[in-house]
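Title: Prediction job returns without error message
Component: structure pipeline
Severity: low
Priority: P3
Assignee: unassigned

Description:
Job completed but the reporter wants confirmation the result is attached to the right record. Sequence as submitted:
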Amino acid sequence: MRVVLVDPAPRRGIREAYESLGIAHIASFLRAGGHEVTLISSALRCLSVRATLRAIRKADAEVIGFSVLEVHAKRALAMVDALRDAGSKAHITLGGHFPTFNHKKLLRRYEGIDSIVRGEGERTFLELVERLSHNESLDGIEGLSFREVVKIQVNPPRALIEDLDTLPFPARDFAPLVLRQHSPLSISASRGCYANCSFCSIRAFYDQSPGPKWRTRSPERVVDEMEALVQRFGRSPIGFVDDQFVGPGKKGKEWAVQLGEEILRRKLGVPFTCSCRVNDIDPDLFGLLKEAGLTRVFIGIESGTERGLLTFNKRTTIAQNVHALATLDKLGIGYKIGFIFFDPYTTFEEVKQNFRFLSDIAPYWMKKRGMLSIEPSLSARRRRAGTP
């Protein structure tokens, strides 16, 4: 079948060009199954809604899939309505965190949506396309919610993919556009997160499906992909998009050590970035990763008060935050700090504490190697992650 997969995010507000790795993984999975797939990124091509719709119609696909973030949901839903108004008979499906959390509500409110792929998309999407290609019922496709005449059918969840090495490398259709905009290519070495921060949708997303919540590919398989990128695109920078680069406990650190050693063994010489928790930063591990090519780490410090850290369920302390920054600074590794200045319970005294904390750590983040990213506040309205 002919399939088009769309990242509808606008270019406005996106600081750095990126590969839409989620739909790129699904595309390679579908292509391995013999299907024709077109990938469209509104952001990379700086497309308006109208121009994106033209690109979708040009693909003349029988199945249209949108990867939807909450912040871009209205834009994506407007595209769905416009496609239907123009007479599109394609099967339209949505995927990602936002549709997963709101599958029933979206199917009830928007008749233009035929189905929603919940959780990890590769196997569910392939099975959906295979059933549609044979005009078969969608009953029983794990991880799928769909409209059956006027009834909303919710199939059982699909188990998380435990052996990520079985997945093909993602399609790299977006790579030339990303490199043209001087941004890094993306690799996913693992999926999920062992933490459960109260403001984050990641753990809630993976909790929708049975199976281990943090899984990793083998270090050899990850470096195989890095090597393939070097052979195809040269030694361009790589950004690991993992929610949590270093896994839990001894096993997680051993995996990171093996990855660093494998990169060094193959002498790739590729600069890379990653994200991890402050409690996983130690001098020996990150010294090795720097030698392997690590140039910058994103760490979510989030608050300068112990009460704030407790509210966010960070399971870290202010002392650990400062120690992580000092360690990275000593090693000469750059970092970007995530910080949430206000939460619904912030007092005026805590505002002053946050100011003092940021002032105390200024010698770190104000240096050339450091960056500070402040999220002004969190909504006071209690809600499940991802709900409108």
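Comment from assignee: result matches the submitted record. Residues 184-377 form a domain with the TIM Barrel fold (CATH 3.20.20.70).
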